[in-house]
TrEMBL record:
It comes from Paracoccus methylovorus. Belongs to the LysR transcriptional regulatory family. This is LysR family transcriptional regulator. It holds the Pfam family LysR_substrate. The keyword DNA repair does not apply. InterPro entries: HTH-type_LysR_regulators (IPR050950), LysR_HTH_N (IPR000847), LysR_subst-bd (IPR005119), WH-like_DNA-bd_sf (IPR036388), WH_DNA-bd_sf (IPR036390). Residues 1-52, 91-148 form the HTH lysR-type domain. It comes from the Bacteria. Keywords: DNA-binding, Plasmid, Transcription, Transcription regulation.
Length: 386
């Protein structure tokens, strides 16, 4: 990648070899190997030089972004500027993989297994990384090396940098007419699931060869995965505390919460439902720590004996099943209710408006450069929430 970056800048393999103090055949061999791995031609070679093809321009842009992020991450880690400039091109994929797996794993042996390396090879890669950076990255733990706290941040930044090459591969395929690519998505319970199903169905009409991987978890877990590059986009409720220096939220629709019950519930026969009425029935409450749970708690905060829910879940399937066979109540946003055409056999109770609500939208990494597939998917989400 270092050789390609210089060749893309100079567009002349002979001059690239001179700058890197390499032989021209070695440079040519490296570029040829890269083209074989990508199954495409990156340059049109002639006597005047090597002009980049569209595929080459895509890879050059992503490669530049990758090296910029690596250099910035090393600078943030405290590597001196001059050394960081050199280390940016000396660091290897195996060294980054060693760091990221050690930072994520519960033991050194577990990290070696996940990295697909022997413990000896992982140890060597870890030590080589420390020599390249001239700083301590690992400390001895009970089960082998563990990353220092600052190194965990470095691991996250480097893992995101390497994803640029994955996106380059997708974009090169799209340049060549392949309507594919990969979406790595996070879906928060309820809100994320409501939006994702239809959006995925629509995006596959435009990109029939695409592949989507959807992970469902709570907001904190999904944001952690997003920050370390495992996910590209998280869909669900926006929360102020989730936004950090490297994560940004885009609200797409704001919707208040409503109380719902099955259609033949006793409270559906009333023209007006009071707080006392609601407290007489069992509730399916959101889990602790969620925005919904905060709204639920504040709704009954002024009561001396608020309802004590026997079930706490954010699973729509569980909620639907329990409510369809009982008089239990729950709370969702009006948007979720309307988006799912009334959530099957349930209806909104005539209870006073719950003024508290939250924005539903997406979370992305700040300054991220999405592919055309990502941009189209985001456009579909925006259209569906308009």
């Amino acid at each position: 990648m270092r050789i390609f970056a210089h060749a893309a800048d100079l567009q002349n393999l002979r001059r690239t070899a001179e700058v890197l103090s390499m032989s021209q055949p070695a440079v040519t061999q490296a570029i040829t190997r890269l083209e074989e791995e990508l199954d495409c031609q990156l340059f049109d070679r002639n006597s005047a030089g090597s002009l980049m093809r569209p595929e080459g321009r895509v890879l050059a842009r992503r490669t530049e972004l990758m090296f910029q992020q690596i250099e910035a991450a090393l600078g943030e880690f405290g590597v001196p500027v001059r050394r960081a400039d050199t280390a940016t091109y000396q660091i290897t994929r195996s060294q980054i993989r060693a760091l990221t797996e050690i930072a994520r794993s519960i033991s050194f042996a577990d990290a070696a297994r996940k990295a697909g390396l022997s413990t000896v090879a992982l140890h060597r890669a870890a030590r080589d990384l420390e020599r390249n950076l001239g700083k301590q990255v690992f400390v001895a733990g009970q089960s082998g090396f563990v990353a220092t706290r600052n190194a965990e941040q470095l691991a996250r930044r480097l893992a995101v940098a390497l994803r640029e090459i994955d996106w380059a591969v997708d974009e090169i395929a799209q340049v060549r007419g392949h309507r594919g690519g990969t979406l790595r998505l996070g879906a928060m319970p309820l809100a994320g699931g409501f939006l994702l199903g239809r959006a995925l169905d629509e995006i596959m009409r435009h990109y029939p060869a695409m592949h989507a991987v959807v992970h469902t978890a709570d907001a904190r877990e999904l944001t952690t995965r997003l920050r370390r590059g495992d996910l590209d986009i998280v869909v669900g409720m926006n929360r102020p505390q989730l936004e950090t220096d490297d994560v940004v939220q885009e609200p797409m629709v704001f919707s208040p919460f409503v109380v719902i019950a099955r259609r033949d519930h006793p409270l559906t026969r009333k023209t007006e439902v009071s707080l006392d009425d609601l407290s007489e029935f069992d509730w399916i409450a959101p889990t602790f720590g969620s925005t919904r749970r905060g709204v639920f708690n504040s709704l009954f905060a002024r009561m001396s004996k608020p309802p004590i829910p026997k079930v706490e879940t954010n699973s729509l399937t569980t909620i639907r099943t329990l409510m369809s066979v009982s008089d239990r109540l729950t709370m969702i946003t009006r948007f979720e209710f309307e988006f799912e055409h009334g959530v099957a056999d349930f209806q909104i109770l005539p209870f006073e408006q719950i003024t508290e609500g939250n924005a539903i939208g997406v979370i992305q990494r700040r300054n991220w450069q999405p592919t055309a597939l990502h941009l189209k998917f985001l456009d579909i989400l925006r259209q569906q929430t308009t």
